[in-house]
Structures are given as C-alpha cells and as structure tokens.
Design goal:
heterotetramer, A: 331 residues, alpha/beta, Rossmann fold, Hypothetical Protein Tm841, Chain: A,domain 3, 2 domains, seven-stranded mixed β-sheet, six-stranded mixed β-sheet, globular, B: 213 residues, mainly alpha, Serine Threonine Protein Phosphatase 5, Tetratricopeptide repeat, binds adenosine-5'-diphosphate, binds magnesium ion
C-alpha cells in the first residue's frame, strides 16, 4: 500500500505538527521540536515522568502525555531512539522539582541517549531514575527477562506510575511502582504483514501472504515460529498460554490489552478478545479495564499483540485512577 | 594515509556520504534480518548531516570533530548513530587543540574511539558489533606501513566481517537471537567494511605525491 | 495480509461477542443478537436514536452507542444491511416513549429494511422518523446530493441529534437537527489498498501498488480518479477544495474529521491534518473539536477520508455537549 | 415446467444452492466493479439458509414460501437479499392456501414478485436491476409452451442480460455511476441468469415423464 507523505525527511516533524495541532492539550518543545509536553502542566511540585522512543508507533509514545500519565516525551526518527538533546529537554520539561522517572522501552539507542541525558540532568541538579519496559516474552527467555524488548505493555507502567506521581509520591515510590508494574506485565505479539520505513522502496522484512510470524517484534524482529496463519482461537490460546506461564504465583485479577499493530482491524481484535475473555473466565480470572484497539503500532504493519498485567493490591487502584491523554481516558 | 588535517577529514566525510547513500538498502536489509531494518537509512541521513557541517573555519581538529559529533547527535538517536557520536566526541578529545594529527597517531585515535563506544554501549569486544571491526582495523594499522593504508583498513574490516560472520551476536537487537545470528553479517560491521572499502578505492586522504608513488 | 478469524460465517457474531465483553456499557440484544444497546439505558422519557448498517466498519456503527449519542444499533453481515427483524428490535430498544429517529447511511438494503421496520414500529405505536447520511461528495453531483452515499461524516449527526435528544427535545426537533447536520457535513475519501470479505480468497476490488483511488467509497466503490499516489499536501489540498466548494454560504467555524479506513496509520493522518489546519487557518476559518483517527473503517482497507461540518449556532453547542461511547468521548 | 408443489420447490432450492455456491466469486467480482463486492457471498449464504428450511410439513405453498422468506430475512439485509425476501412474501401471498399451483399461473406469480420488488426497492423497470430480468422472464413464459420452459426462462434471462448490458444502471450502488456502467452486467441480473441456466440444465421441476418426452 502507498504512504501518504510529503517527504521521508520531514515525516516525523510534519506528523508532530499535526499531532499537536489536533490535540491542544499537547505542545511541541525543545530546540528541534522533538519533545512533546503538556500545554498546561500545572505547577504543583511532584515527580515527573518522561518516556520516548522512535517514531512510527503512534499513539506510543507521545499520545500518552496527559494528566495521570506522562509529563513529556522525547521523539526520535522512525525506529530510532530520540537523541540525547531531546531526552535532556524532555527531562527538563517533566521536572517539577521532585525528580524525574525515565520510563521507556529496552532498546539500545534509547537507553544510551536517556543514560547520557540523565547524567546531564543530574549535573543540573535534577534527580532521575530509570525503568525499562521489558514485557515482550518472545524476545528472550524468562531467565534473561531483563534483555527483553519493551512493547505495548509499557502503557500500564505509564498508568500506575502516573497515578502515583499525581498523588505526590516520592521518586523512589513512583519508580518502584513502575518497576513492579513492568515486572507483572507480559506481552506477546504476531505480525501478518510488514511495514515500510517512510520513503523506502521495500518493506523492512518479508512475510509471505497467508503467513504469520508469532512472537515478532514491533519493528519486525523475528519471532518464535512462522507458519500459515491459524484460526483466531488457536492463536488466542497459544498466546494466553505463553503469558500465563509467566505469572508470578497465584492470580485472580488481570488487565488485558489486545492491541493492533496498525492494519489489523478492530473486528479481528474483538474476535481474539472474545476467546481470551472466555478462557480467563474459565480459569476463574477476572478481567479489569480491558483495552481493545490500537495502543502501540508499527505504522501500517498488520498483526496484533496481547498484554496481560497480573494485578495486585498496589497496582489495581492506580490502574483504575482517573487519567486522560489524547488516546486513552480512564474516567 | 597521510597526516590528518581538516582537509582530509572533509574528503573522508564526503566519500562516506556517497558510500552510505549507495549502500542504504543493503544495510537496511542486513538490519532487517534481526533488527528494525533502519541501519542504512540512518547512516545515509547521518553521513549527509555530517557532510553539511562547514569545517573550514574550525580552529583545530578537536573542535572539528566536536562539530561533527553535534551534527551526528542532532540527526539520530539510534544505537549506531549514538555510538558514532560517542566516537566523534572521543576523537575530538584525543585531537583537542591540534591542527594536524600524525599518521602514526591514527591507530591510537581509533582505539580511543572504540574504547569510548564500548563504555557507552555496554558491549565487550567479541560481541559482534561495529566495535569489533574498528578494533581490528586499529590493530592492523599499527603494524602496517603508513602509506596507502586505507587498503590495510579495508582488508582488516573485511577480515573482521568474515571472522565474525559465524559467531553469534551478543548485544543490541540481534543479540537477543544468539546462535540464530550465526552465518549473518552484523549490519554495523558491514557498514564499517563498506566505508573502509570506499575510502580505499577513492584514495581519500592520500596526497597527490603519494598516489603517484 | 491474513485475517484473524475462526470462520467467515461466525465473523460478525464473534466480533459482537468480543465487543460487548470488552465494553461493559454495551449489551447485545435481539433474537439473533444483532442489536447493540446500552447496559443501563436509563428510564427518562425522551427521543431514541437508532442507527445500523453492515459490519466491517468499526467503530461504526455499534461503537457510537453511548450517552449523548445512539441508543441502539442494528447490525448486518459484512457490507450487508441489517435485516428487518434487527432494525425492528433496535427501534424497540431505543424507544423511550417519545419516538425514534432512524439515522443511517444511504444504502439500498439498509433503507429497505429500516423502512419496513418503521412501518412495523408505527403499527406497534412507536412514532419514527428517518434521516439518511449522504455526506460523500464523490458519490454523486451536488444536484443529485440526495443520492449520495453516507460515510464517516454521519457521526456528527449522531452527536448533535444525540445531544438534543438528551435535552428532552421532540422527535421533530431531533430529526431536524440530524437533517441540518447532515446537510452541512461533507466528506471525501480515498483508497490505497482494498480489503477482503472475511474468508474470501480475493480482494473485493483491485488497486495496484502505488495507486490511489480518489473519491472511492468505503466498500471500494469507484471514485473520481485513479492515479499514482501524490504528495500528502496535494491530496489534502484537493480534498479541502472539493469540500469547501460545497459550503452553504459563508462560514467561519468548522469541525474536521481525518479518518483512516483501517490500515493507514495515525502518523499519515496527522501529516494530512497539518496541511488542512494550515490552509483553513489561512482562510480565517476556525477548527472546533478536530478528530484524527479511525472513526469509520473498512476492515483492513488502506486510505483515509476528510469530513468537514460547516458549523452554525445550532449545531456547534450540540457538537460540543458532553457525550461518551466506547470510541468517542467529549468531556 | 410442471405444476408447482412443495416437492418442486425443494428441488429448485437445492439447485439454486449449488449454482450460487459455484458462482460466488464471479458474482462478487461483478458487484465489485461498482458496488461492494458481496453479491456472490450473500447469495451463497442466502441460498444455503433457504435450503436448510424443512418444507415437508408445510400445509400449503403459501406457508412454504413464507418460511423461505423468513429464512431469507434472517440471513441478510442486503438490497438483493431483501428483495428476494420481498419476492418470497409476494408469492407466498399469491399462493396462499394452495398446495399446487398450475403451470399456467407461474408467469403471473413471477409478475407478482416483480411488482412487490419494485414497490419495496423504489426501482422502475428499465433501471437495470434483477427486476428487469424477472419481468422479462415472466413475459416470455406467458407466450411459451409450458413444457421444458426452464429453457425459455434461461434464454429470456440471458436476453435481458444482453440487452441491458449497454444501458446505464439507474439505482442501487451502481446507479450512482450512470453511463460508466454501460458495457457491464448488473450483478443481480447476472445472478438471475445463472440461476435460470442452472435450472434449465438440471431439468429441475420437470417430472420424469416430461423429461423422457
Ligand atoms: N550496544 C552496542 N555496542 C556496540 N555496537 C552496537 C551496540 N548496539 C548496536 N550496535 C551496532 O549498531 C548496529 C545497529 O545499528 P542501528 O540499526 O542503527 O541501531 P538500532 O538497533 O538502534 O536500529 C549493530 O549492527 C551493531 O554493530
Ligand atoms: N432498489 C433496487 N431495486 C431493484 N433491484 C435492486 C435494487 N438495489 C439493488 N438491486 C439489485 O441488487 C443487486 C445488488 O445486490 P447486493 O450486492 O446484494 O446488494 P448491496 O448493494 O446491498 O450490496 C443489483 O445488482 C441489483 O440487481
Ligand atoms: Mg532503529
Ligand atoms: Mg536498526
Ligand atoms: Mg452489500
Ligand atoms: Mg453488493
């Protein structure tokens, strides 16, 4: 399919211009305009939360800047981390005098740049902490879970850490909430068709018509197996089994996110959700605040992911606390 | 290779720009195998951005490299791009205050870059990254004759590529795939081999009298 | 790309099961389960509003059942109107004693079935009225505008009529508000790639890679021209020109919807929106409540549409009144 | 064609099911040109649903057709499907209380169906819809010999298709495209021709003695 763009080089900046024009709660900041923050940040002293990453994943990351969620985001080029300058600026924007949590996906470039930015911020007297999203169970074994990639499940850490920060908690406590939420959130995804970098002549990976890549990453990183596509219920079952195998002890309550990578339609997500909901209910597990839609995409890639967060008494109230950003409102 | 001045650097940068423009889709394809398929697009953009930097008025090599690092940083936050910036900052420190760097100092300067890249990226030598290529090139340059040694660099970068091909990646996106990466080139190492090859072919950094030798 | 389904025959029912499982404000009703209504409809006497149509367009139609919007929807098979039984049931569900407005897109099957259902409802003593969505300017000339297809712009009529109904207005007034909003709402869309009926081996139309079909309908009905894709700004300009040419007299305020047909990503919508916003502002026109996202889709079709509603003093306050449904919240 | 009893209807329905199963993708393609590409899928599902109706216990033709109309209505709300239901309701009224319909009455019954379809759909004869085919068939059957007249019906439905091909559609999805539709078959008309052709080929509704004539 064709892309609607003017120029590959202007893609990110034009996208951001449109994003903030359409969402007046957001503003573009920073020397290069690669930071998104709140138009009316408020001036109450509290912990700030920043995220960031490569472009091409809307509504991730910028779409989650909002009350009870993120304070600022640093934005990179498509599939590239934000540069150190933008990370530093985002930290400054998020700083409300009580320290800043950097909460982003576990990718090399993002990590190096946020690390450098944190060093600079500390030198400026802004205390920082870091929690990495590592929810993709297909990207490394359980033993090596700290090497895993961060994907759609990170929004739950945004939500709980954001809720706690809004209550005025300390940087240590907000950080611990994010860490705990990441630890209890597991995602697995699959791809059905690739996407193209803007302006590129060919897709960034190949997947034959009718094939599915189970466990593929949101940038097309290879997965666990590749085969002809299977019935929706079989896919739902396999994904749920893989996620439940990661549960830390007993669980009775979960939240579920069925996420499209872009092209896969809502209809198909609901067909998947139907099966997941049935099976969880058969297991006596209650679903709290289910989300079905496009929460973390890869432009026009087809495919979906399922995230489970195994709730506990600390996480659940913060998941359910009111929050609002352009793409997710919890009333 | 000659002693390095800003004139040589400008020529190298221009050659790099052409090389990465030509290699964009090959490098994307190499990165697409276990990564996100953007190494080529990123390097093409990065090299163009650095080539746009006007170095003429820079007082010394240190400030020229610092300007290049700033351009690199502005244009990307990818792993490799950030490591390139880190390398440029390191050589900028190494060459601070000097307007000429003797050809004998070049291997040491490259080593300084590699050391900084390992510190920033958290990789070790042997992890199958661009740093393995850079370190191999620095090592071979040390023992090679000073003249026409872009060819030595090119051969060394190819040697690194060949000898790592059948080893597993241990860091970065590809590092998560361990033994599955055996048999495939690391995109960063491939990029460095492409760069050295292009520099060798164009005799960049060779003064006319050396070329005619 | 592959579809995530179990069986073509079960597609719609499984989708609906998932939809209501994930959205507890909604319930499935009717003998065949092809009606979606509110879980807690409230018992205040007021005008009810129903819509409906073929499946495959989520969040249209069922996703707009909510407070200040629709009371019920009748759902057909993919790209087929709802049957007369479902239409009749939806009217009954929406009936709160003060009459029911049937507000749906101008397609033959939908029309025949809602017409029959209205006749049956009148026989049961439920007063009904009908307003057809006819916003697609590419589907017939201005002179024949009553023959036009209804596409994404219908959500504005849901919104304004829903707001007025919530205020307790009469059926005649709610109907007039819907009619007036439809009259002032214009849409044009384009397709970049087709979709497939669930289970079908081939796409329901052809569009070569790199081609764009300007003016195509949301079911792939042919458009105004077909050519190599153009830069985003050129497309935005052409669409805006075609929409502004339909303005009834002077206008200073509009609302804008930039809608993806499915696969086209948010990034590209924002690139389009950026240009539209700039040009409208150059014309001195103010944009109220812009929407950018997936509001009316065709499963995995790639493409987008732009809708403009030329506001007036009657429409604007009802557009801005609070409302909420699973896919659109006006706070 | 014979006098019509429930036995003939069941055979016709079964033959229709097979015909639309085979023609699904062709009819989708015909509808995909100016419409939404679902005529074939819809008719296939509709015919299967009607074929599942158990007519054996129905007291008369009127109630048999009513049951079929109900099945049609349950399975779709598309334009054509709704018109099929409308037609079935009309013939149900026409045949109310009768267990056999004489072959002479068949054209009139078909006309009753066509009239009801025009009333429901708002089309006129000449708009290039399935009703034009149905009306043509009714007309030709009136003047044709009663025996083996599925062939007459088939020829008439083909004739309608051919003679309307170069006229513009005036209603439904295709109706919005006016002269652009010239040269293309209307999917509903095509479907009716396919149905009549299948019935003619299989001699459905011909009693054994007639077949051997
Ligand atoms: N931590 C690291 N240390 C050293 N080199 C690395 C590291 N991470 C990645 N690389 C190098 O960068 C290359 C990938 O570059 P690129 O595609 O730009 O990065 P990204 O993974 O951010 O998209 C790898 O092939 C490898 O040579
Ligand atoms: N108003 C109408 N009156 C008579 N026939 C109609 C009408 N609308 C559509 N048709 C017939 O139905 C056919 C289309 O059927 P179908 O694809 O099932 O409908 P839809 O447009 O609802 O998808 C057309 O080819 C035409 O023969
Ligand atoms: Mg990258
Ligand atoms: Mg990469
Ligand atoms: Mg249809
Ligand atoms: Mg159709």
């Amino acid at each position: 399919m064709s892309q609607i763009i003017n120029s590959a080089l202007q893609y990110v900046d034009e996208m951001l211009e449109g994003l903030v024009a359409a969402n007046r709660s957001l503003v573009r900041l920073g020397e290069a305009g690669r930071v998104v923050g709140l138009s009316t940040p408020g001036d109450r002293a509290r912990v700030g939360i920043v995220s960031g990453g490569g472009s091409g994943h809307l509504p991730l990351f910028t779409g989650y800047v909002g009350s009870g969620l993120l304070d600022a985001c640093a934005i990179g080029n498509v599939f590239e981390g934000p540069n150190v300058q933008s990370c530093m600026e985002a930290i400054r924007v998020a700083d409300r005098g009580r320290g800043v949590l950097c909460l982003y996906g576990n990718y090399g470039g993002d990590r190096m740049n946020f690390d450098m930015a944190s060093e600079l911020a500390e030198a400026e007297g802004i205390e920082t902490s870091t929690v990495l999203g590592i929810d993709d169970v297909a990207s490394a074994s359980f033993d090596e879970h700290s090497r895993r990639r961060g994907v759609a499940g990170i929004i739950y850490a945004y939500k709980t850490a954001g809720a706690l920060a809004a209550l005025g908690a300390s940087l240590a406590d907000v950080t611990e909430m994010a860490r705990r939420t990441v630890e209890r959130t597991k995602t697995i995804g699959f791809a059905l068709s690739p996407c193209r970098l803007p302006g590129a002549a060919v897709a960034s990976f190949e997947l034959a018509e009718g094939e599915i890549g189970m466990g593929m990453g949101i940038h097309g990183e290879p997965g666990i197996w590749q085969d002809r596509v299977k019935p929706a219920d079989d896919l739902a079952d396999e994904m749920l089994d893989r996620l439940m195998a990661e549960a830390l002890g007993d669980f009775r309550r979960v939240t579920v996110l069925v996420n499209s990578l872009g092209a896969t339609p809502l209809e198909e997500l609901f067909i998947l959700y139907r099966r997941l909901a049935r099976r969880l209910s058969d297991h006596g597990v209650e679903i709290v605040l289910p989300l079905v839609g496009r929460y973390t995409t890869s432009m026009e890639m087809a495919g979906a992911s399922v995230s489970l967060c195994f709730l506990d008494e600390d996480i659940e109230p913060h998941l359910l606390a009111p929050a609002s950003c352009p793409f997710w409102t919890v009333p | 290779m000659t002693d390095v001045t800003i004139r040589e650097i400008s020529a190298i940068v221009e050659r790099a720009r052409l090389a990465f423009d030509a290699a964009e889709s090959d490098l994307n394809a190499a990165d697409g195998r276990f990564g996100d398929g953007d190494t080529g697009t990123m390097l093409n953009r990065l090299a163009s951005a650095i080539a746009l930097v006007d170095l003429k008025a820079e007082p010394d090599l240190g400030s020229a490299f610092r300007k290049m690092a700033a351009a690199a940083s502005r244009s990307t936050g990818s792993s490799l791009g950030t490591l390139v910036m880190t390398a440029l900052l390191a050589v900028s420190k190494y060459a601070a205050g000097q307007s000429t760097l003797s050809r004998q100092a070049i291997p040491e300067m490259i080593e300084a870059a590699a050391t900084a890249m390992l510190a920033r990226g958290g990789a070790s030598l042997g992890d199958k990254t661009i740093v393995d290529s850079i370190a191999t090139v620095a090592g071979e340059l040390k023992t090679a004759p000073a003249v026409a040694s872009w060819e030595v660099a090119s051969a060394a970068s190819r040697k690194a590529l060949d000898s790592f091909r059948d080893r597993p990646s241990r860091i970065g996106r590809a590092g998560r795939y361990g033994n599955k990466t055996i048999g495939f080139d690391d995109p960063g190492m491939l990029a460095f081999a492409i760069l050295c090859g292009a520099l060798a072919r164009s005799n960049v950094g060779l003064r006319p009298e050396e070329v005619s030798e």
